[in-house]
Amino acid sequence: QVELVESGGGLVQAGGSLNLSCAASGSIFRIVAMAWYRQAPGKERELVASVNAGGGTNFADSVKGRFAISRNNALNPVYLQMNSLKPEDTAVYYCNLRGYSDYRNTLDAWGQGTLVTVSS
């Protein structure tokens, strides 16, 4: 069993910054990639940023230049630094882990989500 715990969400004014963190624990053999998704009210969940074991990163166009994703060599924990926040960034942010368990089963685990609210 794998558990992802996110923290760092909250209320911030437009133009402000927040740093989200995600820590994974449990029966993890290898992490292939970690990602942050978000889901705003009435909208589908979307990819915000991801980082793989090779250090490659990917960002949604809407956050490029404002958000950064960082991690240690183990990809755990992983951080999402969010700068120049806009009201449209308001959403529940979810951490996602892809990898392999101690039993070599594929993993696709999700955190419980952390709410980010950006006021105008």
Question: What is the compact description of this entry?
Answer:
The chain is mainly beta.
What secondary-structure arrangement, pairings included, does this model have?
Layout: E1 2-7, E2 10-13, E3 18-26, E4 28-39, E5 46-52, E6 57-59, E7 67-71, E8 78-82, E9 91-101, E10 106-110, E11 114-119
Parallel strand pairs: 2-11
Antiparallel strand pairs: 1-3, 3-8, 4-5, 4-9, 5-6, 7-8, 9-10, 9-11
* Overall pLDDT metric: 95
Terminal-residue CA separation: 40 Å
> What's the helix count?
0
Strand segment count: 11
- Structural class category: mainly beta
Question: Element order, helices and strands?
Answer: EEEEEEEEEEE
Shape by Cα distribution: elongated
Helical content (DSSP H or I, runs of 4+): under 10%
Strand content: over 45%
Radius of gyration (Å): 14 Å
How can the largest sheet be summarized? 7 strands, mixed
Model regions low in confidence, pLDDT < 50 over at least 5 residues: none
What would your notes on this structure say?
This protein is an all-beta fold and 120 residues long. Helices cover 0% and strands 61% of the residues. It has no helices and 11 strands. The protein has strands at 2-7, 10-13, 18-26, 28-39, 46-52, 57-59, 67-71, 78-82, 91-101, 106-110, 114-119. It is elongated, with a radius of gyration of 14 Å.
Descriptive key words:
single chain, 120 residues, mainly beta, seven-stranded mixed β-sheet, four-stranded antiparallel β-sheet, 11 strands, 61% strand
